[in-house]
């Protein structure tokens, strides 16, 4: 994550956590005729993911049932997808989303870009390992089969290259790479895409922050302007995503949330994925950036595009900050 970024979650671990009591309450909410959705929402949105995993274990040990399967049978549609996302371990959930983006006819390249371009090397390595365990297929092989050209080569590099670790910045290297990027793009006829790919997938995020500043000093143009002038298609979108994430993770996800809700229809899959996956990382930062960029709160934007228990669950995750006062007072 960029050096100056301090991530702030909205979902924190519950203080007086009783997994057995939660398991019993969830079973009661789903037993018999009808489902008490509000109890399910209230419990699961007020627990961290690791606490939800403990609840699932207790549910199986003490009640002899599979919590995820019970939830699937009781909840459907967007609410069901949202609750399922909350119940999967975070990296498993991202693997699940990557698989859905590539499974069947067509490929959702935007999902691939969103997930793969916003991860550190260690996270990508874990995702690749889990993906093969979950779907019996190497992630890099699946990605290669669903993409092409420079876009495919870039994603392959992201999955197979280890970024340089955080360290004291080598100013000479920063200056050298800024010149290389200029000479590979704006400084020549045609574009040498491989140079952009190698530098933006190999360098650590902290290094890239300084590289982008150096590029501006050298050329008097932002790196974003250079990419837009020299590149196109999904390859351009992926490199731009890396730059945007390095500049500001909060802005990166705020813009994607806005795009998911603008125009006719809502991209519920993207809306769910971002809110679920960032709630325990930096959703508080994303909320602030969303309001700064678009002049309305994220919660109000969500309320205007969703309804019912689905809306309530999303807003619980957005607004929660559960037990913050209790934690700070201890």
Instruction: List the total number of helices.
Output: 21
The major β-sheet equals: none
Average predicted local confidence, pLDDT: 93
| Residue runs with pLDDT of under 50 for 5 or more positions | 323-330
Structural Rg: 21 Å
Query: Helical residue percent?
Result: over 70%
Distance between the termini: 29 Å
Number of distinct beta strands: 0
Order of helices and strands: HHHHHHHHHHHHHHHHHHHHH
Strand content: under 5%
* Protein structure class: mainly alpha
Principal-axis shape: elongated
Describe, in plain words, how this protein is organized in 3D.
Helix 5 (77-87) packs parallel to helix 17 and helix 6 crosses helix 8 (121-135). The longest helix is centred in the first third of the chain and has 15 residues, at 49-63. Residues 323-330 have low confidence and may be disordered. By secondary structure, the chain is mostly helical. Helix content is 71%, strand content 0%. It has 21 helices and no strands. The radius of gyration is 21 Å and the shape is elongated.
Topology, element by element:
Elements: H1 19-30, H2 37-44, H3 49-63, H4 67-74, H5 77-87, H6 90-102, H7 109-116, H8 121-135, H9 139-146, H10 149-160, H11 171-184, H12 193-202, H13 205-219, H14 223-230, H15 233-247, H16 249-261, H17 268-278, H18 283-294, H19 298-305, H20 308-319, H21 324-329
């Amino acid at each position: 994550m960029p050096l100056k970024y301090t991530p702030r979650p909205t979902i924190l671990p519950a203080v007086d956590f009783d997994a057995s009591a939660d398991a019993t309450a969830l079973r009661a909410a789903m037993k018999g005729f009808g489902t008490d959705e509000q109890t399910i929402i209230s419990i699961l949105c007020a627990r961290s993911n690791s606490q939800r995993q403990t609840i699932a274990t207790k549910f199986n040990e003490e009640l002899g049932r599979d919590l995820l399967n019970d939830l699937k049978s009781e909840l459907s549609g967007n609410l069901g997808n949202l609750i399922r996302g909350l119940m999967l371990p975070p990296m498993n959930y991202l693997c699940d989303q990557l698989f859905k983006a590539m499974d069947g006819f067509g490929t959702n390249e935007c999902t691939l870009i969103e997930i793969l371009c916003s991860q550190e090397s260690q996270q990508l390595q874990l995702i690749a390992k889990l993906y093969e365990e979950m779907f019996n297929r190497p992630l890099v092989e699946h990605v290669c089969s669903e993409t092409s050209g420079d876009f495919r080569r870039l994603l392959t590099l992201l999955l197979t290259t280890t970024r340089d670790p955080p360290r004291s910045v080598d100013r000479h290297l920063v200056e050298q790479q800024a010149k290389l990027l200029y000479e590979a793009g704006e400084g020549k006829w045609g574009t040498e895409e491989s140079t952009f790919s190698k530098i933006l997938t190999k360098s650590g995020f902290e290094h890239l922050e300084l590289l982008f500043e150096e590029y501006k000093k050298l050329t008097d143009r932002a790196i974003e302007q250079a990419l837009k002038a020299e590149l196109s298609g999904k390859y351009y979108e992926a490199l731009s995503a890396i730059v945007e994430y390095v500049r500001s993770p909060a802005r990166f996800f705020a813009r994607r949330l806005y795009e998911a809700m603008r125009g006719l229809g809502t991209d519920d899959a993207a809306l769910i994925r971002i809110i679920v996956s960032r709630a325990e990382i930096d959703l508080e930062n994303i909320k602030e950036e969303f309001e700064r960029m678009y002049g309305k709160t994220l919660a109000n934007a969500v309320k205007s595009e969703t309804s019912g228990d689905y809306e309530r669950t999303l807003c619980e995750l957005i607004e929660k900050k559960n037990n913050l006062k209790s934690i700070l007072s201890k």
